[in-house]
Amino acid sequence: MEITVTVNGRTRTRDVEPRLLLVHLLRDELRLTGTHWGCDTSNCGACAVWLDGVPVKSCTVLAVMADGHEIRTVEGLEGPHGLDQIQISFVQCHGLQCGFCTPGMLMTARWLLDRVPDPTDEQIREAISGQTCRCTGYENIVRAIRHAAAAERDAAERGAR
Amino acid sequence: MTLVDPRRDPAAAAPVPNGFGPMLRKEDGRFVRGRGRFVDDIDLPGMLHGAVLRSPYAHARIVSIDTGGALAHPKVRAVITGADLERRGMAWLPTLSHDVAAVLATDKVRYQGQEIAFVVAEDRYSARDALALIDVEYEPLAPVVDARRALDPDAPLVRDEVPGRADNHVFDWEAGDAAATDAAFAAAEHVSTCDLLYPRVHPAPLETCGIVAALDPVTDRLVVHCTTQAPHAHRTLYATLTGIPEHRIRIVAPDIGGGFGNKVALYPGYLCAVYAATITGAPVKWTEDRSENLMSTSFARDYHMHGEIAATKDGRITGLRVRVLADHGAFNGTSQPSKFPAGFFHIFTGSYAIQAAHCRVTGVYTNKAPGGVAYACSFRITEASYLVERMVDVLAFDLGLDPAQVRRKNLLRPEQFPYRCATGWVYDSGDYPRALEQALEMAEYAELRAEQAQRRAEYERTGEGALLGIGLSTFTEAVGAGPKKQMDIGGLGMADAAELSVHPDGTAELRLSCMSQGQGHETTFAQIIAHELGISPYAVNVVQGDTDRTPFGLGTYGSRSTPVSGAAAATAARRVRERAKLVAAAMLEISPADLEWEAGRWQVRGDPAAGASLAEIARAAHGSLELPDDLEGQLSGRCVYNPPNLTFPFGAYVCVVEVDPGTGQVRVRRFVAVDDCGVRINPTVVEGQIHGGLADGIGMALMEVLAFDTDGNHLGASFMDYLLPTALECPSWELGQTVTPSPHHPLGAKGIGESATVGAPAAVVNAVLDAIGVRHADMPLTPAQVWSAMRGRPLRTDLAVR
């Protein structure tokens, strides 16, 4: 069936099988391979993207469920003036090693910071607890999210002055 | 100097040392943009998709396979069975451990999840659909599930295809002096014994294994993109298995989403994809799903150990003896040095001065997946370290001594290095007491013991409140395999090569045989060259993972990148530096003996203003300068590094847990890790490696297990069943360090990739058992296991309760 999905601000129309998973629409049909697939069972979160502004695990969403909706993926984080602060902070805090969980972690972290600009470590850990990282032991992911929050608060204060 | 925009390249905009020191990673820019290139991201024109039909039974004879239904599927291009492969002599592949393993089952299936057929279709989903259209008739057989029953006279035979084979015995192997150890035990004041299971676990990298195989019709070459930690070794294996000579095979490992040993072996799915590419003429992709990964690819551990420790009454260890039953699954498919059937397990005396030690290891076949050496285990040192660290705590428990005191009494002293242990390993360097004291100080050990006593008294008075446990682990690693005279993988000596070329403008390209799976080679190895040549790491392009572009070597596993390839890179750079000296002498018309090296340039001794920078020398070496007859033009160097010995990283860990006695729930409150990996090239990367290993330790100690029911059904075949630690199970790690350089490594570095995975599980287990006052219970210490252990009935964790 034909579906129209807005992905990272761009409208895309595709004729898809009703059973096609959103992660495969993104990866195989739209060639947005930044969204990864890791487990099939919604446990690892490597496939996390935003559906209408809310993180979802795209391995457990049918592409047809995204018809008429907005998707944001890791490819949509970088803006015309450069990387999003959360991307910068992941680099600055060594928040990634193999890079496979990173896109999903970034999407969840961005979502958290948009709602909770000054999260506690507990809030950060809770927010990413539906996602698995096998490399970092989470320490530097938590640190990166805290770092991004501080940088954005600093920037906001500078802007207010 | 170009200006770097921190919003576009935050790593390059941060401080960059011309050598060792904290530095942000060069590779991160692509990963945070979602522009990494992993195997499943590759999409070639006309590419087909493979899917594997797997056995639902642990043990069954195959009566018939009917592929007609699948072949009739409109999008299916081919269906491959064992019979097809048999005609090409490819139905069985030699393993790296003197055995063979089925590629696609022909006679019977030997574990649940074993490969039976391979479907090739036009898209992913159709390939999967067609699996359901294959009819296989099975005749179920009784399986061997419990390794402890595998050698029973009436046990079903796993490998009855081998003529004359009458049992499930794989090997017997021993190390150490049995007679001396028996004598030490006969004379001992005290002996403690304990049975310990290190259960079957799985490395479970977040990216599963996969391949894109293609035959280039123009060059007639096989091009394989694959998740491999060892591209060159794979090329040799493919050549052996397919008959295609090595020069017509190109293996490319693109970005790899974690390996941990899972991506060393060559799996049946890979060979099927290669075969499918040859018969269809199209590129074929195969990416396993998570269940396939957990059920069929290299598991880890599965060591059933019986430990005995002899000591004086005041806790001085006089002997250590261990018998191991090793469950190798249906095929002996461990990826380890071929002369070491139990890996490096015989380093089980660990960090202690134990004069008499002996181990005997018996490997058995069972109806489970093959594998056995994976999950950052340093070739079974994880099992050995767990054994000795647990036995030391059991000894302390039995003698009523403080585990820290027992360790202090028995740790090797710095003046004993280099130290030859009872089974013959020569430890290069170490200062174990210093690491232990530092860890105890960071943890505030005395205060913790006081709090523990207070909490226990409170619990005994009121029946309420969490119990506190403190667990220690003072482990020794052995990495950087290895001297190729003793160590080979499938007949290939474990040496690795590095090639360094300096371009005319003074920037450089380093080509490596090892392959990162997230360790950050592009940064660390650039820093090694920067350190040796006095240039920026950003002036060094690191090439890895492509057999067409890199020199031969055995790859990255067993924490061997820095110890072996790092030494090769440093040596190659030093050869470049020496060659640059001769070029500089010709440029300056001076004797090389009058030149000295200083921060990236050769300059005249006593006249530092006169000299030439590496860039100037490189330009001259590529230019028209008249060079001495024996000096080639250009500027390059290479090295094949054959390590003289292993390196021996070590550490002292303190884990602090709280246990809810009502539910058995464990919370890891603190984890103090003091690691010594010799010289640290990039401390930030080193700490990241440690963090990841510590999380593994918590996972294995508390959550992870591949258990089986009595029919051989795999009970951990998804992440809903095989539990991995999340951010909520992990505390904020507290790291400390000591630096004891390796005396034989050119950089003094020892390697760090697996230390924490080796050392952490024992610390966590020791802490939990310390909290509940139980002598021993096997991993994983789930709430059910802790609760049962507190009631004197610890569970057997590797088998399902019926």
TrEMBL record, chain A:
<keyword id="KW-0001">2Fe-2S</keyword>
<dbReference type="Pfam" id="PF01799">
    <property type="entry name" value="Fer2_2"/>
</dbReference>
<keyword id="KW-0560">Oxidoreductase</keyword>
<feature type="domain" description="2Fe-2S ferredoxin-type">
    <location>
        <begin position="1"/>
        <end position="77"/>
    </location>
</feature>
<protein>
    <submittedName>
        <fullName>Carbon-monoxide dehydrogenase small subunit</fullName>
    </submittedName>
</protein>
<dbReference type="InterPro" id="IPR012675">
    <property type="entry name" value="Beta-grasp_dom_sf"/>
</dbReference>
<dbReference type="InterPro" id="IPR002888">
    <property type="entry name" value="2Fe-2S-bd"/>
</dbReference>
<keyword id="KW-0408">Iron</keyword>
<comment type="pathway">
    <text>Alkaloid degradation; nicotine degradation.</text>
</comment>
<dbReference type="InterPro" id="IPR051452">
    <property type="entry name" value="Diverse_Oxidoreductases"/>
</dbReference>
<dbReference type="Pfam" id="PF00111">
    <property type="entry name" value="Fer2"/>
</dbReference>
<dbReference type="GO" id="GO:0016491">
    <property type="term" value="F:oxidoreductase activity"/>
</dbReference>
<dbReference type="GO" id="GO:0046872">
    <property type="term" value="F:metal ion binding"/>
</dbReference>
<dbReference type="InterPro" id="IPR036884">
    <property type="entry name" value="2Fe-2S-bd_dom_sf"/>
</dbReference>
<dbReference type="InterPro" id="IPR036010">
    <property type="entry name" value="2Fe-2S_ferredoxin-like_sf"/>
</dbReference>
<dbReference type="InterPro" id="IPR001041">
    <property type="entry name" value="2Fe-2S_ferredoxin-type"/>
</dbReference>
<dbReference type="GO" id="GO:0051537">
    <property type="term" value="F:2 iron, 2 sulfur cluster binding"/>
</dbReference>
<keyword id="KW-0479">Metal-binding</keyword>
<keyword id="KW-0411">Iron-sulfur</keyword>
Automatic annotation (TrEMBL), chain B:
<dbReference type="GO" id="GO:0030151">
    <property type="term" value="F:molybdenum ion binding"/>
</dbReference>
<keyword id="KW-0560">Oxidoreductase</keyword>
<keyword id="KW-0500">Molybdenum</keyword>
<dbReference type="InterPro" id="IPR012780">
    <property type="entry name" value="CO_Mo_DH_lsu"/>
</dbReference>
<dbReference type="InterPro" id="IPR016208">
    <property type="entry name" value="Ald_Oxase/xanthine_DH-like"/>
</dbReference>
<feature type="region of interest" description="Disordered">
    <location>
        <begin position="1"/>
        <end position="20"/>
    </location>
</feature>
<dbReference type="GO" id="GO:0043885">
    <property type="term" value="F:anaerobic carbon-monoxide dehydrogenase activity"/>
</dbReference>
<dbReference type="InterPro" id="IPR008274">
    <property type="entry name" value="AldOxase/xan_DH_MoCoBD1"/>
</dbReference>
<protein>
    <submittedName>
        <fullName>Carbon monoxide dehydrogenase, large subunit apoprotein</fullName>
    </submittedName>
</protein>
<dbReference type="GO" id="GO:0005507">
    <property type="term" value="F:copper ion binding"/>
</dbReference>
<dbReference type="InterPro" id="IPR036856">
    <property type="entry name" value="Ald_Oxase/Xan_DH_a/b_sf"/>
</dbReference>
<dbReference type="Pfam" id="PF02738">
    <property type="entry name" value="MoCoBD_1"/>
</dbReference>
<feature type="domain" description="Aldehyde oxidase/xanthine dehydrogenase a/b hammerhead">
    <location>
        <begin position="33"/>
        <end position="142"/>
    </location>
</feature>
<feature type="compositionally biased region" description="Basic and acidic residues">
    <location>
        <begin position="1"/>
        <end position="10"/>
    </location>
</feature>
<dbReference type="GO" id="GO:0005506">
    <property type="term" value="F:iron ion binding"/>
</dbReference>
<dbReference type="Pfam" id="PF20256">
    <property type="entry name" value="MoCoBD_2"/>
</dbReference>
<dbReference type="InterPro" id="IPR000674">
    <property type="entry name" value="Ald_Oxase/Xan_DH_a/b"/>
</dbReference>
<dbReference type="Pfam" id="PF01315">
    <property type="entry name" value="Ald_Xan_dh_C"/>
</dbReference>
<dbReference type="InterPro" id="IPR046867">
    <property type="entry name" value="AldOxase/xan_DH_MoCoBD2"/>
</dbReference>
<dbReference type="InterPro" id="IPR037165">
    <property type="entry name" value="AldOxase/xan_DH_Mopterin-bd_sf"/>
</dbReference>
